[in-house]
From TrEMBL:
Its main location: cytoplasm. One of its GO terms (cellular component) is cytoplasm. It is found in: Cytoplasm. Keywords: DNA-binding, Transcription, Transcription regulation. It comes from the Bacteria. This is HTH-type transcriptional regulator SarZ.
Length: 154
């Protein structure tokens, strides 16, 4: 391995880390006005689309493990935005449902994408290009994860 490969500025993981932290820092002042965190916001995005969802499906949609998702949902429940209910047919399953207060939050959050774009100043073509590249990168990384797990099982 070439020694220059071990430089911080050569690591794609560090670029992604910086980008992730930067975007969350942009979101946070806007989300502070709603009294929610970024993980709570993306959870609410799913619930604004679906209204009710199985807890495990919510975790899959957000790519979050149960241990990470549980406190997020619990805090949203304490804020009155969601409620958890046991599935009547299968007691092992939990439904996460949006409440009326959670639905009202959506109208207050409606301007978030536009507010963020005001600061980022990205046109639609750039947005679509970055979205495509990021989706492609996630697919590559998911495939690499699968290969790594398969190798560990051997």
């Amino acid at each position: 391995m070439n020694e220059s490969e071990l430089r911080l500025d050569r690591q794609i993981c560090f670029r992604l880390y910086r980008a992730s932290r930067s975007i969350i820092r942009l979101y946070q002042p806007i989300l502070d006005t709603l009294n929610i965190t970024y993980p709570q916001y993306i959870t609410m995005l799913v619930l604004w689309e679906d209204n009710v969802i199985d807890f495990k499906d919510l975790g899959r949609r957000l790519d979050l493990k149960t241990g990470t998702l549980t406190p997020i949902v619990k805090n949203l429940e304490q804020l009155g935005y969601v409620q958890r209910e046991q599935n009547r047919e299968d007691k092992r399953k939990i439904w996460v449902k949006i409440t009326e207060t959670g639905k009202e939050l959506k109208s207050r959050a409606q301007s978030i994408p536009e507010s963020l774009n005001h600061f980022i100043n990205m046109d639609q073509e750039q947005y679509e290009r970055y979205a495509f590249l990021l989706d492609e990168l996630v697919d590559l990384l998911k495939n690499a994860e699968t290969k790594q797990k398969e190798k560990e099982l051997r």
